[in-house]
Specification:
With about 450 residues, this protein is an alpha/beta fold. About 55% of the residues lie in helices and about 10% in strands. It folds into three domains: about 80 residues, SRP54, nucleotide-binding domain (Four Helix Bundle (Hemerythrin (Met), subunit A), Up-down Bundle); about 200 residues, Rossmann fold (3-Layer(aba) Sandwich), CATH 3.40.50; about 140 residues, Signal recognition particle, SRP54 subunit, M-domain (434 Repressor (Amino-terminal Domain)). An eight-stranded mixed β-sheet has the order 3-2-4-1-5-6-7-8, sandwiched between helices.
């Protein structure tokens, strides 16, 4: 997300911070580069002009040019205005005080509404503990209603039974009645895809809004559409009064122009972003955190939240107990690999760390490959229970069997064995340091999940 823009901005500001005193000319040159970077990221021209004007007004002031670290002050000014452009504060999805709270998803066909409906249903169920019902109002796309039914089963969220031949308005009325009678806290309505310039379909959407009275009317927009996302959002907002937006496929959008433009142009807050195909891959949109990522400051808060959401407390307790005894076997390694994959893999985790852009090239040279995690999982699964718990059993014939069963090579098996041995040795040393009181008291707060505290 925002990779290309973050790289460009990183280059601009790295050059700026290397200089001591700054002149107005230095700041002007840097802001010209920022303007080009934003335009290349597909940010709307009107938004770029307004942004640069606001930043320049503060960046060439005495407060910046005469400060001890003028380069850092310019970055702070840009950061503050990025946050302002993105909406300043998190605006969460709300369900209102009187259940069922109706959430209607609208947008173009293929923007990801049905998948987003299932993600949102799972989110309401697991995070907010809300009894949720989902209903598909899409009678135009073949098997659209069946798709939501299938996704509902995967998420463990109830879905309104399909009645063949029923029109969207009748389905909506039945869904609202079912949600009320069933005692549901939330009702998610997945509408058919439509163009904002199609009067007939937009009139139908207006009727659906009038009948269901949604608390939230969310536009689901594909971030890869760039400038078109802004036009689409503006068109829907004029017709049905959007309460917010959900940007999908953000993980595949290296430019990020839609996110930077849509809030500024429409005034509608971005509430959620889709960051993957998994049903858990739906995140709150935090303007300040996004601005920090863009400027290479990382997003440690999001990383911690991901860790808290994915780490199983019982597994962490078991691992802590074993590590306290200096034990770390392949079963423990498998748990750690699974947790890394849940958190978005190594690339997803590293993207949230400060200053990571500076070492991306070194990582590329070192050939850090996400597929290694899959290979390692396959190798561990090909071991017997005894082999996982006691690596000393792995002789040559067992290694050949494991390599064959996992579709890997003996060299990869040996590499994983060395990794497990090294990690086990490191854990034993760290545990001893903790027991002797050599470990700083603040260090346990930043140790990996399940690591024993001294």
């Amino acid at each position: 997300m925002f990779d290309s823009l973050a790289d460009r901005l990183g280059e601009v500001f790295e050059h700026l911070t290397k200089r001591g005193a700054l002149t107005e000319s230095d700041v002007g040159k840097a802001l010209r580069e920022v303007r080009i970077a934003l335009l290349e990221a597909d940010v709307a021209l009107s938004v770029v002009k307004k942004f640069i004007d606001q930043v320049k007004e503060r960046a060439v002031g005495a407060e910046v040019l005469n400060s001890i670290t003028p380069g850092q002050m310019v970055i702070k000014v840009v950061h503050d205005h990025l946050v302002q452009m993105l909406g300043s504060d998190l605006v969460p999805v709300t369900l209102g005080a009187n259940p069922p709270g109706v959430v209607m998803l609208v947008g173009l066909q293929g923007s990801g509404k049905t998948t987003t409906a299932a993600k949102l249903g799972l989110r309401f169920k697991t995070r907010d503990h809300k009894n949720t019902l989902m209903a598909s109002l899409d009678v135009n796309r073949p098997a659209a209603q069946e798709q939501l039914l299938l996704l509902g089963r995967q998420a463990g969220v109830d879905t309104l039974p399909v009645v063949q031949g029923q029109l969207p308005l009748a389905i909506a009325e039945r869904a609202v009645q079912a949600a009320r009678l069933g005692g549901y806290d939330a009702l998610i309505l997945d509408t058919a895809g439509r163009l904002h310039i199609n009067d007939a379909l937009m009139n139908e959407l207006t009727e659906l809004v009038n009948v269901t009275q949604p608390i939230e009317t969310l536009l689901v927009a594909d971030s890869l559409t760039g400038q078109d996302a802004v036009k689409i959002a503006d068109g829907f907002h004029r017709r049905v009064g959007l309460t917010g937006l959900v940007l999908t496929r953000v993980d595949g959008d290296g430019r990020g122009g839609a996110a930077l433009s849509v809030r500024s142009v429409t005034g509608c807050p971005i509430k959620l972003i889709g960051v993957g195909e998994n049903l858990e891959a739906l995140e709150d949109f935090h303007p300040e955190r996004i601005a920090s990522r863009l400027l290479g400051m990382g997003d440690v808060v999001s990383l911690v939240e991901k860790a808290q959401a994915t780490i199983e407390h019982d597994e962490a307790e078991k691992l802590a107990a074993k590590l306290g005894k200096g034990q770390f076997d392949f079963e423990d390694l498998a748990v750690q690999i699974a947790q890394i994959r849940k958190m978005g893999g190594m690339e997803g985790m590293l993207a949230l760390l400060p200053g990571i852009a500076k070492i991306k090239k070194k990582m590329a040279v070192g050939r850090v490959d996400e597929r290694q995690l899959s290979h390692q999982e396959a190798i561990i699964r090909s071991m017997t229970l005894n082999e996982r718990r006691n690596a000393k059993l792995l002789n040559s014939s067992r290694k050949r069997r494991i390599a064959s069963g996992s579709g890997t090579t003996i060299q990869e098996v040996n590499r994983l064995l060395k990794q497990q041995k090294d990690m086990s040795t490191m854990m034993k040393r760290a545990t001893k340091m903790g027991k002797k009181g050599l470990m700083p008291s603040a260090l346990p707060n930043v140790l990996p999940p399940g690591f024993p505290t001294p």
